[in-house]
Amino acid sequence: MARPGHTAWLLLGAAMLLFASAATAQDCLSATFSGGRTFGRCNSMPTLGASLHWTYHPENGTADIAFRARSGTDGWVGWGINPGRLGMAGSSVFIASQDGSGTASVLMTNLDTTSPSLQPATLKFGVPAGPTVEYSGGAYTIFATILLPGNTTQQNTVWQAGPLSGGNIQPHPTAPANLASTQRLDFLSGSSTGASNSRLRRRNIHGVLNAVAWGILIPTGAIIARYLRVFESADPAWFYLHIACQCSGYILGVAGWGLGLKLGSESVGVTYHPHRNIGIAIFCLATLQVFALLLRPDKKNKYRFYWNIYHHSVGYSVIILSAINIFKGFDILKPATGYKTAYIVVLATLGGIALFLEAITWPIAIRKRKRDADKASNGTAGWQQGA
Length: 387
Ligand SMILES: *[C@@H]1O[C@H](CO)[C@@H](O)[C@H](O)[C@H]1NC(C)=O
Ligand SMILES: *[C@@H]1O[C@H](CO)[C@@H](O)[C@H](O)[C@H]1NC(C)=O
Description:
Four Helix Bundle (Hemerythrin (Met), subunit A); transmembrane helix; Cytochrome b561 and DOMON domain-containing protein
């Protein structure tokens, strides 16, 4: 069955994955800083659109750091080190915020508990220079020189973003991205590991699998079925291409869906009801489509007309629900903006191709229907009812 088509789609999927991971890897390397400051290493944090840039000086155990994180003017961001454990309580942090006039400032404080007093304090590590802060282009950047606690390069780091109210720092949200914002960072090698990393990686795999399967393969298969079959020379190739797209989309999509359910069951206390329910509905409808293929009446069968209506309405519902759910997923995962933009570009391209094909196939379809009606005495084979 149409192996070339199948392979092409797998290649496209792989290319998307590569593109997406390259986009995030580039994020921190391309950053520039005011005053011509440069840093030897950087790390794109897995959550909250944050990155840390630093130069480590082994001779005196200090690091010049720049922490950058996206935020609106009505938000704060923070970064710090916890000398004791990986987590918020016990950490010493820099928190950047701004007042009503847009003047940014940075607070140094110790977070003794998970509901800290936020009083200015001397940190648990030395701060030989800074901190200073800038807000521009929708992001804060905190600059400081720090003495790495214990004179060791492996540190428990934390970062966060939250809202301001009248210039006052408000508690951060408890979305998974906010709860997963800790990692152990090696200032010498730049490598990072965190309890959150494996889970976050699986969330990203869930997102990419589902976006490729439900967001690209399935709509492409529908476009092939709707427009290619109008050309007689494409018969029956379009059918096999359609099946190849939908089957590979379904298999990848069910894998991504299963991973999503598993992630959902693991996240105690946080359930995204609409995302989860739409996901389950998509799975049920798509599974119906697989049965539809098996129960498809013959072209001449009088029930074929009703089967077509059913097949098309379920199919279009899956495509629309998938697009909605992918955007809901972006809202939950809050990945680097590259992902969302890439998906919007793909969606717009598919839409553009569909519109273009709609325009060029209409006249052909009408001619074909006329011809079929002329030659068929009992048939109802037109392009709407065909296949
Ligand atoms: C930190 O350790 C390095 C060797 O790893 C040493 O050269 C340096 O003097 C130490 N710095 C401090 C402040 O103890
Ligand atoms: C640490 O060492 C670097 C490189 O020699 C130097 O530029 C920096 O000023 C030193 N920092 C402190 C606080 O001594």
